């Protein structure tokens, strides 16, 4: 009898965490390593939000709340959806989880049966397919291309849908590419979905506010109201509010789905951290001006990184519309050999050699389902980014 569940064999550890861990190990051993693998802002949580957390402690708000979020926070989330997305949700249509990932996972656990398919455009956030597998479903990845800006086309979506398709996971702006869908591009996808009433839509809008160059964010149920009853609109405070460690995500959707998610959460984690909920309430209702200021910094870093990487022979780096990632192609480097003798036959080999030989930690494209590429997070200092790009250029120059 095996001690570990057979379910565990269907999933793998997060490659982004693995690269970050390896970089930390090298640093601990005295190596000079620049880490560009972790996906979190380098800004501190704004003062007013931190003070709200402290005030919650001092006021004694340290007890359990409802399993999927306290009423005041749910009301604030409803107001946010109405104000920013034109979506009308009532508090009993809202779920608050321990980070954005929990809402996605709860929804999949609540709805998937063996044989159910979930369409996931590639490249994708590394956790999507494994969460589907854990929930007993079948991930169906649909590759995008550099030529389409890593955006899924309506034709590709339509071709991937079968009678077994239950969910379509949609992420814009994207992790790992930063690609955003404008209203017309998203409308083409929602038109396809309207022809397939059995397919529900799960959005990951975590990077909603991190957009550049006048890009206007929109979400599926906002673009196509006919999808409202079939959409779980997921978001959170982690990225825009620099609250990754506070672990608060939220979702709005149909009452029956939210009730099912609540049942799972009540028997697993129960309520998210009470203090974090009070901080998230301040994040959603307090001043928002710092977001534009932070975005200006991110946009400057993006432009610098894209320019420096694009100047490297063998690398093609598209300009992202949002988030804080670039996803360059290294198709022109495949088949070469590093100075230390490593053959660059995959993007994983490239990322490993880059870390071991040049001291730069990135995440290889195969982890996100589309090769040969790699992901850089530019949520770090200008100096670190400039030095990292210099090291990447020097490393690539030695490839033969």
UniProtKB/TrEMBL annotation:
SUPFAM superfamilies: PLP-dependent transferases. This is Aminotransferase. It holds the Pfam family Aminotran_1_2. Residues 32-392 form the Aminotransferase class I/classII large domain. The keyword Transferase applies. It catalyses: L-aspartate + 2-oxoglutarate = oxaloacetate + L-glutamate. GO terms for biological process: amino acid metabolic process.
């Amino acid at each position: 009898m095996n001690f570990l569940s057979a379910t565990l064999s269907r999933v793998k550890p997060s490659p982004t965490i693995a690269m970050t861990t390896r970089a930390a190990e090298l640093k601990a051993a005295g190596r000079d390593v620049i880490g560009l693998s972790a996906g979190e802002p380098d800004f501190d949580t704004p003062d007013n939000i931190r003070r709200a957390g402290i005030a919650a402690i001092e006021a004694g708000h340290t007890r359990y709340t409802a399993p999927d979020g306290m009423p005041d926070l749910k009301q604030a989330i409803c107001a946010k959806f109405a104000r920013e997305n034109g979506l009308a949700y009532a508090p009993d249509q809202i779920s608050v989880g321990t980070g954005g990932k929990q809402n996605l996972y709860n929804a999949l656990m609540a709805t998937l049966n063996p044989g159910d398919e979930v369409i996931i455009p590639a490249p994708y956030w590394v956790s999507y397919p494994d969460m589907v597998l854990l929930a007993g479903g079948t991930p169906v990845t649909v590759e995008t291309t550099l030529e389409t800006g890593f955006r899924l086309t309506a034709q590709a979506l339509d071709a991937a849908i079968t009678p077994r398709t239950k969910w379509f996971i949609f992420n814009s702006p994207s992790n790992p590419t930063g690609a955003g869908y404008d209203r017309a591009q998203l409308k083409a996808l929602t038109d396809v979905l309207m022809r397939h009433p059995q397919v529900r839509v799960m959005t990951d809008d975590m990077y909603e506010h991190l957009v550049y160059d006048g890009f206007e964010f929109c979400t599926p149920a906002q673009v196509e109201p006919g999808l409202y009853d079939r959409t779980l609109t997921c978001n959170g405070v982690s990225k825009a509010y620099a609250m990754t460690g506070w672990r608060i995500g939220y979702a709005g959707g149909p009452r029956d789905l939210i009730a099912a998610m609540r049942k799972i959460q009540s028997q697993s984690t129960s309520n998210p951290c009470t203090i974090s909920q009070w901080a998230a309430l301040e994040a959603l209702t307090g001043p928002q001006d710092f977001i534009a200021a932070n975005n200006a910094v991110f946009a400057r870093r993006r432009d610098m990184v894209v320019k420096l990487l694009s100047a490297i022979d063998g690398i093609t780096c598209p300009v992202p519309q949002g988030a804080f990632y670039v996803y360059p192609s290294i198709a022109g480097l495949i088949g070469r050999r590093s100075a230390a003798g490593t053959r660059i036959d995959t993007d994983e080999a490239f990322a490993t050699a880059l870390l071991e030989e040049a001291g730069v930690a990135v995440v290889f494209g195969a982890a996100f389902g589309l090769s040969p590429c790699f992901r850089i997070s530019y949520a770090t200092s200008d100096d670190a980014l400039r030095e990292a790009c210099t090291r990447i250029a020097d490393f690539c120059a030695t490839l033969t």
